[in-house]
Amino acid sequence: MVDAISSRLSGRIALVTGGASGFGEGIVRRFVQEGASVAVVDRQLGKAQALAQELGSSAHAFHADVASRESVDALRTALYEKYPRLDILVNNAGIGHVPTPLEDVDPAKFEEIFAVNARSVFLTARAFVPDMKRLRSGVILNVASTGGVRPRPRLAWYNASKGWMISATRAMAIELAEFRIRVNAINPVAGDTPLLATFMGQDTPEARAKMLGSIPLGRLSLPSDMGAAAAYLCSDDASMITGVALEVDGGRCI
C-alpha cells in the first residue's frame, strides 16, 4: 500500500501502459496516492502483478503488447470486464535505441521504435476514444520526450518518434476538444530508469556526468517527477489545459 497524498483523482479510473517500471511505475504510484483506480498495463505481466499486489485494491495488472492491434483490442475487453469505464489513458510505453549514426540503425529496430512509440498511440485511441466521446469526458496523456523538442545526436529515430507523439498530442487535442476530452503530453529529460543505459550507450560515471552536464538543475529526472506532472495534468486542476507538451526536464530545453 502507499500513503495518500490527496484525493485529486478520487473515483477516476486510469490506465497506464508500460506501467510496471520506470516513469510508468512512478505515474501508477502517484495516481494511486491521489485516489485513482489504476490498470497497470505491461508486456511483463509478472512485474505488473507484483506492483499491483504491492499497491493493493486500487491497482490491477493487465498484460498487453501496445504495438499489436489484437493485443490492444483484448486489453479493452479485459479492462471493461474489470472497470465500468476509462477516465484517464496514459500512453507511457516506449523504447529507444543505443546511440547510433542515423543511417546505421537496423531497419527492424526502426520499425519497432515506431510501432511502440507511435502506432500504440493510434491503437489505444482507436480502442478507448469512442467510449470517451460517448461519455463526453476523458483525459489522455502521452509520455513524449525532450528528444522530440531538442534532439540529441545519434538518437535520430527515437527523437523523431517522440516528435511525432508531440504533434499527435496537439492534433488529438484540437479534434477531441468538442467532446470535452483533454489531451496533453509530458516531455521528460533523461531519467534514472532502465532505459538510461540504452540512451547513453553504457551506464558509466563518465556517461552520467556528461548527461548531467546538459541538465541545468543538475540531476536526472525521477519516476516521481513524472508522476507529479501526470497527476496534475490529468486532474481537474488542469481542466483548462489541453494540447500542451509540458517539459519536465530540469531546464534542458531552455
Model description:
The chain has 254 residues and is an alpha/beta fold. The chain has a single domain (13-248), classed as 3-Layer(aba) Sandwich (Rossmann fold). It contains 8 helices and 7 strands; from the N terminus they run βαβαβαβαβαβαααβ. It has helices spanning 22-33, 45-55, 69-82, 107-135, 156-176, 196-200, 205-212, 223-233; strands at residues 13-17, 37-42, 59-63, 88-91, 138-143, 181-188, 245-248. Helix 1 links the parallel strand 1 (13-17) and strand 2. The longest helix has 29 residues, at 107-135.
Question: Would you kindly provide a brief summary of this structure?
Answer:
With 254 residues, the chain is α/β, with parallel strands linked by helices.
